[in-house]
Amino acid sequence: MSYNAALTDLIIKMADDELIQGHRNSEWTGLGPVMEEDIAFSSMAQDKIGHAWALYRILHENLEGKDPDTFAFHRPEKDFKCSHLVEMPNEEYGFSLMRHFLFDHAEAIRYESLLDSSFEPFRILSKKVKGELKYHTLHANAWITQLSQAGEDSYQRMQAALNNTVALAAGIFEASPEYEDTLVTERVYPGEAILYQRWLDRIYPILVKASLNLPDPKTITPAYGGRQGIHTPYLQPLLKEMGEVFNLDAEASW
Amino acid sequence: MSQTITIASVYEALEHVMDPEIPVLSVIDLGMITGVDLGEGEVHVKMIPTFAACPAVSYIQQRIKTVLEQELGIAVTVTVDKEAHWQSNRMTSAAKEKLQHFGIAPPQVLAGEMHAEILLAVPCPHCGSKETYLRSPFGSTLCRAIHFCKSCGQVFEQFKPLE
Fold first, then answer.
1. Residue range A86-102: average pLDDT?
2. Nearest to B150 by CA among B117, B126, B115, B119
3. Domain of B32?
4. Interface test with B, best of A19, A47, A134 (most B CBs within 10 A)
5. In CATH, which superfamily holds the domain spanning A2-248?
6. B145 touching A, CB under 8 A?
7. Which of A40, A48, A130 shows the shortest C-beta gap to B138?
């Protein structure tokens, strides 16, 4: 049934974003520039992977999907539907923070839109996740504002991070050519175009407060492809590392 | 084991199941229990985790089962309630007092949505001063934030308000 296929597609792309972003966050564990930041990225990693798990569980329980662990760790790269944004290596802290800022606001907008979804599991999950995400956006907003006001070098790094990240972040809102109409008509969610607009409206005033210039959205070419299984060269090594233990013995019981 | 099991006796036993991360609080104090059903020769308990990614959920489920089976001498099943979601307002006032004594600032009562401002000037659990600031919205566990008290010069943790 195409409705179920459309739902499955949307859930996979949301869950894969959460899982891969969660993994990237976890790479700061033990390496954060200050203790609080190490803890913050580790905590956010835990939240993201928890949200991914909850989404994979919806697939498993409502849409005849595989067991969440198997689905998360035992899929070829082309079956992943994460955006290119989350695949990028952490690089310097400015990039990691900017990605966190852009990604978490996109997530907050998405889950808010699911509060009145026609799909009940979305309504239940989004209520839970929305409250937790407030701590992620709070953290991101505080650092974006603070570092943009911390001297010329710091400001320029943050502006450069924004310039380098915004097209990748716009790629979050890649609509499925096959399923988007069904999802919107069936009132599962408002659709990527609307979420993209809401996201721009949400991040703009925070960037203004930080004196950062958001590049004109008309000049942005979003980094699409991830939702169709076309990925950057950074995803495959990440998947290999993430699944390393699980794939030693996929049948093991934990 | 000929005692009569009532809903009340199940709740009483649940007060002996402590949270692994904050051992002074029971699952009742935390508001984690959403329902108790008495069936034919078994008890069914429904619970919810505080945060979706709480790593202690299956441990807590197991603890509930073990403690209740020991105290009541009856088979117990524990499931995660998918309909309900945990909010910090579910925590009892007794629980908040225990938290305070344990050295963790309790979550404020939320009227509606959580706003960032609520995390400012959280009273210090050590000296009671409100001259404090939020150091990080993330702490040693998912449910805690880190604050700093300017009056007594100490870092303290707060159980986060969650809407």
1. 96
2. B126
3. 7-80
4. A134
5. Ferritin, core subunit, four-helix bundle (1.20.1260.10)
6. yes
7. A40
